[in-house]
Amino acid sequence: MCPSWVKSLAQPIAVDDVVFYLAECLSKPETMAEIFEIGGPDKITYEELMRIYSAYLNRNLFVLQIPFLTTILSSYWVDLITPVKAFLARPLIEPCP
Predict the structure, then answer these.
(1) What is the CA radius of gyration of the chain?
(2) Phi, psi of 40, rounded to the nearest 5 degrees
(3) Per-residue DSSP letters for 13-25?
(4) For the chain, how many structural domains are there in total?
(5) Phi-psi label, residue 58: left if phi above 0, alpha if psi -120 to 50, beta otherwise
(6) Domain range holding 49?
(7) Are 96 and 8 spatial neighbours (Cβ–Cβ below 8 Å)?
């Protein structure tokens, strides 16, 4: 069961790329105290990400959308079923303005 935000777009990025960007920022003084948005070149939905991951695990995925789950309830659901804490999940699942 998934809330409607599984249709939101994400730009997944490889952990190796994130580490590279962080290391590069440490070596450049002009990046100090700055915020940089990073993401991969592809824009896909969270549902597509789940489907890719389930295919990788060789498992079937059945998605049932539940439209009434709010962002806060959804973040607690993520906290319950994954190792990701609600306060970290919330900004990822909030709808874009």
Answers:
(1) 16
(2) -75, 175
(3) --HHHHHHHHHHH
(4) 1
(5) left
(6) 2-12+42-93
(7) yes
* Residue 36 counted as domain residue: no
pLDDT digits (tens, 9 = 90+) for 7-65: 888 889 999 999 999 999 999 999 988 888 898 999 999 889 889 989 999 988 888 77
Residue type, 11: Q
Q: Give the DSSP H or E segment for 27.
A: none
* Region of 80 on the Ramachandran plot (φ > 0 left; ψ -120 to 50 alpha; else beta): alpha
**Helices 86-93 and 71-81, packing angle to 10 deg:** 130
Structure tokens at 64: 């049932």
- Domain assignment present for residue 17? The answer is no
